[in-house]
Every structure is written in C-alpha cells, then in structure tokens.
Specification:
It is a single chain. The chain is of the alpha/beta class and about 550 residues long. It is built from 23 helices and 16 strands. Strand 12 and strand 13 form a beta hairpin. Helix 11 runs antiparallel to helix 12 and helix 13 crosses helix 16. It is globular, with a radius of gyration of 29 Å. The N terminus is likely disordered.
Length: about 550
Amino acid sequence: MQHKYHLRGEINILYRKVITSKNYFPCLLLARGTRLVQVRQNSLEKLRLTAEKSLEKLRWVFEKSLKKVYFCFQIKCHTMLKRKIEDDLIAWKNKPGHKPLVIMGIRQCGKTYISRHFAEQNYKNVVYMNFIKQPERINAFVGSKDVDSILLNLSAQIKGVKFIPEETCLIFDEIQECPEARTSLKFFKEDGRFDVIATGSLLGVQGYGDELKKRRRKMIQKKDLGINSVPVGSEDIIEMYPLDFEEFLWANGMNPDVIEALRKFYTEETPVPEGIHVAMRQYLNLYVAIGGFPAPINAFLTTNNMNAVSEEYKGILKEYRDDMVKYAPDKDKPHIRECFNSIPKQLAKENKKFQYSKVKPGGRGETYLGSLQWLEDAGIICRCYNTDITGLPMEGNAKDNVFKVYTADIGLLIEMLGPGTRADILQGNLGGFKGAIFENLMADTLHKKQQSLYYFLKDSGLELDFLVRMKGECVPLEVKAKTAQAKSVQTVLKHADKYHVKHIIKFGDYNVGREGQLLTLPNYMQFLLDLEPEEIILKPIDVDAVNALAKKILG
C-alpha cells in the first residue's frame, strides 16, 4: 500500500512542476502523428492548456493502471489462501435467476479479497467501490433507487466506467456504511442485467447504521422513502468466517492426500501413523497460536515471526474496539468493551459460566445484556448455552440466562491473553489456562461449521463441554488439552438410559481409539466432525388415491 501512494505522490509532484512552470524552453516540439510542430514563445498559454489537459488524462490512465497492478500484486500475495467459500460463490453464480449476493462476516476475515478475486476470475467487467474509502459513492444511491439512475450517477463519479449487461459484476464493499445501497439490491434483482456482490461487517447487528442514517437525513433535503428498507427476499446471504484448521493446512501447503488420509482414519476409527500424528499436532499448535485471520496467517507465512502475527492482531483488535464506539447504540458503548475485555477472566474460572460481576464489581445482567448481544451479532463472540438435559432439540432445552462466552476465532483469545502466550503454546507451557484455550478451539470449530453451541451442566456438578447433533442423536463432546480423565464422561456412560446418550467423543492429546461407547480422537481431528443435517426423503403421498377413496365413500 505504501509503494502505491509513494508512486502516486511522485506523479503529483511531476504534474505540478509541469503545469506551473513559467520557464519553458523557448522552443518546444510536440509529436502529432509523424510530423513535428514548432511552438514559439507566443503560443505558450495555448500549449499550457493543452499540456495540462493531456497530463491530467495521462495521470488518470496511469493511476487506473497502477490500481490494476496493485490489485494483481495483492492477489499474488494471497493465492495460497484457498477458501471453502469459493465453491459457494461458484454455485451462486451458476444458479439460474440468482439474486444479489451479500457476504456477511466478522471484520478482517477476507470478504473483500475473496469477492474481488472471484469477480476478476469470472466476469469480463468488474466495478468495485468501497463506501469507507470512497464515501462520495454513497451519493449515487441517495434518492431514486432505479438501477439506471444509480448507474448514471456512478458514471458521473467514475471516469471510464462501463456497465455491460450480463458481463458486469458490481461489488459494494463495506455496505454497512451505505444502507441505501443495501436497499438498492431489491431493484438490481428486479432489473436482472447485472450481478451484484455486497460485503459488509456488522450487518447482523440489529439496527446497524441507524446513527449514520440519522446524520445523513440531516444532509438530504428531500425525503428518501427507501432509506430504512432491507431487501428481504431479494438477496442471497453467505456467512464468511476466518480460516478453519483445514483451510490453514491448505495455506501451509498440506497435500490434499494427507487430509483425505486423516478423514479415512477418522471414519474407520484407526490410529494415525506416528509421523503424520506428530506433524499434525505441531500444525494444530501453530493454528492455535496464529488463529484463522488471513492477515496474521500471511504475516507468518512471509516472515515466520510471531511478532509480526501479534502486530496484525493489534490492528484487528483496534478496529473492533473502534467499531464498538462507532456503530453501537449510545447506551451500550461504555459497556461493550468491558464485556469483551472480560472474556479471558471469564474463561480462567473453573466454572466458565459468564458472570456479570466479573465484568465489573456489582455488574448486573440488565446493564450488560445489550452489550453482549451486540458483540454476538457483530460476529466477535459466540455464546454456548447451558442445558441440563442431554436430548433433542437442544434449543428447546437451553437456558437463555446461563451461558459461556468464547471468542469467534481462537486467535483473538490468544492475543488478548498477552505477550508470550504464543510461545507458551508452541513450547507446551500453557499452565492452568490450557483447558480454556482448547475449549475455545472447539467453539471456534463448531462456530465455523455454523453450529449453535450448547453444554451440559447439572446442579450436581456433572458437566459435558459441548453437545452436538450427529446423525439424529445428541452426542456429547469432551475437550482436553492433554490426556486427562473426564469423570463426567464415565458417569454419563454408566447411566446411558438415564441420559439418553449412546456414545461420547473425547478430544485430547490422543491418537484415534475406541473403548466401548467412548471414541477418543486427537484435537487436530475436530474439523472432521460431520455435523451436516441428516437427509430425509419422503415418499410422495398419492393424492389421487385419497381423492378416489373420498369420492367412493361419499357415493
């Protein structure tokens, strides 16, 4: 980025020197076709005007080319980060009559890169705009939401832009800054000539952008009737997350055959060969230390330096804390940071239930409930709800006021734990906090599989870390950093009829093994859990036969 603006600065300096200089050569030669025209001193003013116009055009062409070169450089730097969402984007594009696409996700998870990379690979013409870096683009969406009007406004703002039907993809980046652009998606869907991909953070936050809308209304003289409308039914939505462990392995050059072999060992419940087992344990520790955000991963792949990883996370956390002030409701702004900063203290307790008194002495739920909801809607945290019944449906048995709070990506927690934590993880010196870290890792895994989180806890102290639905059953998951015994697991298995549990999966520093109803798996196999909903195919009801029977009965 610095090189880009340094080069642009040199262009501007050269430009100013040329158009302001009063000491031109007495004679200046201009090439026009194949002949040379001698310009005398008395034609200087005319020449200055011509030169100024030509140089302005030259600067615009050069800057446009520079942007393309810079974006290609970005793509080259990020090609190692293959993402699973690419398959979803291809499926969206190939779906007949697809709607505009909204990619939602936590800030800095890679939405901008993936949308631009996908568009450049699949469309002849791409029109990109970023409503934070280019706030003037917002004006194109104010007033009429007619597609032709919007394109006309954009054409006036963007020199040389082309809108070619069926061949153009428009990218609305940081769309949370322009709710009017979100409203326009309905009209782009009805128009149908152009594909639109919108990306944004905080789109899940209730009433996102309300303060921006209020301020903008004061600037707009005429009333914009569509300013508050979210185009329900007129957009496809994909949730994007930071890299999961499998994507992290891809980024580190892991051969797909190794992952398929791991899948085979998991499915057949056979031990992993020692060479692969040791390597995968090391990669998992590396993933825990670095997390899944693209920028820190790229920093590590480029430098092999954990300090560079930490610097990237400091920038990410600063953006999150800035968002808490910029976008949150006024009544919650003082409390959101307090809730977020309390997460390590909450997880350090043996009973990891979220307690408002740990946020601030004397803290009460009514003060902080809205703040927690904001953090969850923003995708920064995920809540794991308590249930005292190991049965389905888990949502129906969950207690809304009893829950644990984890960071949505393990890398955020590690950064919040302070300097030296990454070294402790890689060296195996985690101390008493290791259980919380690996619990958060499982929460990270389940969250990125789009699972709601639940845990089992009875008043007697009997506790199971997570409950998931697998193949139509409620299956408890236990997570250990090392090879500790889990008393609760043994108790539940001894009373399987009482707890309606047929088997339990325990993750830890083990190889693959089974002992009766207990399956033990290494922590690095968390990503292999198959949590897809079971497929139910019903036989069609013979309506004609029913109608015929009814007719026969009635005579």
